[in-house]
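pinned: reference chain
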Amino acid sequence: MKPAFRDRAAAGARLAAMLEKYRGSDAVVLAIPAGGVPVGAALARELGLSLHAAPVSKVLYPWTTESGFGAVAFDGSVWLDEEAVENSPLTKTQVEKAVGDARAKVERRTRRFGVDPSALKNSTVILVDDGIAAGSTMRTAIAALRKLGASRIIVAVPTAPSRSLEAMRKLADEIACPNIRGGGSFAVADAYQEWHDLSDDEVEAMLKR
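pinned: its structure tokens
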């Protein structure tokens, strides 16, 4: 399938066109590092909104660097797909280690990028990532924002499979996604012509700009 976007910045501009009604409002753009930050930066710049980071990390299976069975959010909360754990050969020790690794990553990024809970309470939050696959990261981020008192949560992602978006619709107040894909296999990177993993240095530079 042909890529839908040149790069993450172009995807952010496309999302901004879908969210024009929030231009110049008091909505906060909250981007999930790393890949969500260039998307969020372009969206925030286009709509004149403030940009913040929302560190969330997948809890990864020990045999892969991509696929996860849960996530840890910036407020320390953990969500695990109990069915996935039950149906996998994971041991209790492996699950605990995977959660610990994700928590350490989130804590490191939270210290570096900062999260201001006071900016989120009673706020309209546009929660951005570069795409949704299974949805564990986004699901966990939404739950954390609800706990912090966000009044309205808009999930804004350039690409996602239809099955994952259906799950998000039950959790978020609004969804913006220009590239909805069907079929069995799905990879976020397939939606982009230009794709690379971002370093924390790159993310920090974008947030400072």
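why pinned: The two ends are 34 Å apart (CA to CA). Residues 92-113 form the longest helix (22 residues).
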